[in-house]
Amino acid sequence: MKKKIEIKNLKVSYGSKVVIKDLSLDIYQNEVIAIIGPANSGKSSLLRCLNRMTDFNNEVKVEGSVLLDGQNIYEEEDSTFLRRRVGMVSPLPVGLPMTIQENVTYAPRMAGCKNKAELDFILEDCLKKAALWDEVKDRLHTLATKLSGGQQQRLTIARALSHHPEVLCLDEFSIAIDPVTTMKIESVLHELKKDMTIVMVTNVINQAKRLGDRTAMMLNGEILDLDENSKLFNGQTKDSRTKDYIEGLFG
Amino acid sequence: MFKPSIHLLNKDIREKNFKNILSLVTFFLFLPALGIIFWLFIKGYPALSWDFLTQDPINGMTAGGIFPTIIGTFWLVIISVLVSCPMGVLAALYLSEYAKDGKLTRIIRLAILNLAGVPSIVHALFGLGAFVLFMNMGTSILAASFTLAVMNLPVIITSTLESLKAVPHSYREASWNVGASRLQTIRYIVLPNSYPGILTGVVFAVGRSAGETAAILFTGVAFYLPFLPSTVFDQCMALSMHLFTISTQVVGVPEAYPFATALVLILLILSVNSIAVGLRTYFRVKRKW
Does the model's pTM come out above 0.80? Predict the structure, then answer.
């Protein structure tokens, strides 16, 4: 299997607070890797390192290297191109204060696409993938901020898909969505796996079990356990705390 | 069981009283604003006429109109806003979107806040030293406008900073997340959502510039000029200064004249404000979160 992302000796700190200590992780092409673990274990920080959103926080210090297709992303001067390759869905829904249509076509427009037919195709395609098309197809020109929280979350997913990322990072994408819609999106993610690599942080252990090919258990900025789902969720854990966390005894 | 207890009844009364006090205070604040305009109109009405607006003052400023002062005020306000707005907005953008939160930026912010509290007569002396004498502009519209611009910079920077801060950080993150650059994020996300706040600062600056007397006293405004300024290096007259002159320095001015002049000044500022309010509502309706 081809390695899509290689994280080597990653260390992340906010001021004097170390949130990730010496973490190494390989992520393979076209796999879904789920990251579970209690709050404050550095899951979101890890995701933010993958598309260098850390650049925008002056307090963050990142050491070590993250290789995307063998290229160290921290050696590049400009990180905007990287963010088009590595998409991100944040845990809280953010509808940008513009119309639904403008929201979904924002990324391609910022990348310089002006072709209306192409933008329209992206709009419909991404909204369908995010299981939102049927609900909003008649009001694409209304403000996205008027949508409900769950709809905005799906809009966020549509926006993240709109720039055809090679890697999609999902940070608790289902936090504001009902179970039925979550299932719809999960099945879409299953499809998307064919063309992209998915890194998913989740607090719902069953979701990690359902969607992931492999699952990593993080605690206090370290990976306690990392294995294929068939093993990890069948009691074959290296660390007893992982087993306890999965079974709901700890965390 | 659900009968209101004495305690609850008391609470209800307090609740109502508090609301009444608040509305009363608001009403009393509104009253002077209305009263001023009303009073000025009553007192200044006899002097108001088309000629008053379009004629030069004559007979040692005891008769005629106030045309040159309106023109002068326009010059001063427009040039000072043209200078201070771009500078102020760009400085605020830098401080809010680019500058790292360090010792230096904290000092800059503190300096801006302090500058906003400097009395205008001090700004006037600064303008006299820096623009009139050091930069050799002489007492001119340019020097006076620059002085006003310096005076207004902190106001514009502070209000712009506030309105930039009011744009949720999550919008910026969402924009960066999909590969928009910092500049694109500012252009398409941050600025469109802070126009109303920035406009408020600009309007404030316009009002201050138009009404300011001390800052332009030494730097470019004359008591009386028999001609209109033809370039920015000429001196000019100004409404605020004229009001001061005819109400305290000149003998024999009809009583209605100062009131009418003040009314024109206030209406001028109000009309600029209402344009801004219109623009703000327009932006608000267009973009809302």
Answer: yes
